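Query structure, 463 tokens:
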């Protein structure tokens, strides 16, 4: 993908499907085109709440070829990007502060030796005022000499910070993955999933030491640390994943000072008995993430890119002794913090084995049980802008749970089987009046995921 790639752009009108009053909220099917529409788990709404962005992958396959947005009022669909030269794209999210959408793009002109993989993908940005004109977010440098501010692998699930100034992502390293696969390779750090950020300190230009190298418009760094074999019972992790920004403006420390930027993520620990499970971690970020610590930001031929100077990684939950320890991996979900940053929400089983909402302070402490349903939470989730509710799927319905009381309100009628709300996304609009999600809908040409919106009743919108 070049720095400015013009893609084929089209605008379609699919028409609004009739609304359905279900006794809870007003549910509307927004898209009807005979293709799948996949929402990311957060930031799918435009800042003004008029559009929802999605990609066109089928199921869990990374085979989408376009990024589109639909007007939730008129049903008009606008194509923002169409991939070129055999590449695929997906997982689109909006900036909360600007008409920018960031998403994954795989390799153009893929070959048997170089095709889409976790270590071979990157971020791309499109300004929705100029559909089709995309810029590579992160520079990629797959062979020495390595470049400060560039990555050497694949970035994934790019999410703008609440102020729209930074972008988070997860990352895997192609250089180390090749060593992992090579017989008799020299000692090296293994490729492991980590968390990274991109900041507008670019552009970053790389040398042409590899045919797949590319320049990027932002400066990218890895901010978490993993180890090959975590010591049982320790806070070391072998994987950092499912990341989320903490607060609109960070969070308050126990001494009353403010940590301006932080990310919550799941870290894979090893328990004393040798089993592995995820716990909640946080990484506090420095104001200037371009400064190196004692090891190179860009990495070496045998080590991954190192976190910047001033990064602090901490474990928040210690659930080894519970009957069902750890953050659950089903449903897959990303950690999400309250708008004020005081609570980080995650999913964990209660003592009866039911998946519930829990929260923990970014300063640590005992986790708090939020939901109390016998049905269990079955999707990713988001917080309402006022911080009172969390939207999620439960018992075949889109629901909101009040964090202070644990009371769950059903917003859509219960449905079972393939027509139930899908688990990938349940996303509050910026004004808190609506929630976006998808359902699989059968039509003349097959069954496709379609975008739906349900309005939140007035009684649940109070500040």
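Result returned for the query:
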């Amino acid at each position: 993908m070049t720095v400015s790639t013009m893609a084929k752009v089209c605008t379609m009108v699919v028409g609004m499907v009739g609304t359905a009053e279900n006794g809870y909220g007003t549910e509307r099917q927004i898209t009807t085109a005979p293709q799948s529409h996949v929402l990311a788990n957060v930031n799918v709404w435009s800042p003004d709440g008029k559009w929802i962005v999605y990609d066109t992958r089928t199921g869990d396959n990374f085979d989408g070829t376009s990024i589109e947005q639909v007007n939730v009022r008129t049903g008009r669909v606008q194509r923002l990007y169409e991939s070129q030269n055999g590449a695929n794209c997906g997982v689109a999210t909006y900036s909360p502060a600007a008409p920018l959408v960031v998403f994954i793009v795989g390799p153009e002109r893929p070959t048997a030796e170089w095709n889409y993989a976790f270590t071979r993908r990157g971020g791309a940005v499109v300004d929705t005022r100029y559909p089709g004109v995309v810029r590579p977010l992160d520079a990629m440098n797959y062979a020495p000499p390595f470049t400060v501010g560039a990555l050497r692998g694949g970035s994934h699930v790019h999410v703008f910070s609440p102020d729209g100034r930074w972008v988070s992502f997860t990352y895997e390293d192609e250089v180390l993955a090749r060593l992992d696969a090579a017989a008799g390779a020299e000692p090296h750090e293994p490729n492991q999933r980590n968390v990274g950020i991109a900041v507008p300190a670019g552009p970053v230009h790389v040398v042409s030491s590899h045919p797949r190298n590319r320049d990027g418009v932002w400066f990218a760094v890895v901010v978490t640390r993993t180890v090959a074999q975590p010591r049982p019972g320790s806070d070391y992790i072998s994987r950092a994943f499912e990341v989320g920004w903490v607060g609109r403006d960070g969070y308050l420390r126990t001494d009353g000072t403010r940590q301006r930027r932080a990310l919550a993520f799941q870290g894979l620990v090893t328990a004393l008995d040798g089993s592995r499970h995820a716990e909640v971690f946080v990484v506090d970020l420095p104001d200037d993430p371009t400064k190196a610590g004692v090891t190179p930001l860009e990495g070496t031929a045998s080590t991954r890119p190192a976190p910047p100077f001033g990064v602090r990684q901490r474990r928040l939950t210690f659930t080894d002794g519970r009957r069902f320890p750890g953050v659950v991996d089903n449903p897959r979900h990303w950690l999400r913090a309250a708008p004020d940053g005081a609570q980080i929400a995650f999913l964990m089983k209660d003592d009866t084995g039911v998946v519930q909402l829990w929260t923990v302070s970014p300063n640590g402490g005992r986790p708090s049980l939020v939901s109390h349903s016998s049905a269990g939470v079955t999707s990713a989730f988001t917080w309402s802008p006022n911080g009172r509710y969390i939207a999620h799927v439960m018992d075949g319905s889109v629901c909101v749970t009040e964090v202070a009381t644990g009371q769950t309100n059903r917003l859509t009628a219960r449905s079972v089987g393939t027509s139930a709300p899908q688990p990938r996304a349940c996303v509050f609009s910026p004004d808190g009046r609506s929630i976006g999600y998808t359902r699989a809908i059968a039509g003349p040409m097959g069954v496709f995921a379609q975008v739906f919106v349900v309005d939140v009743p007035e009684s649940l919108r109070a500040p």
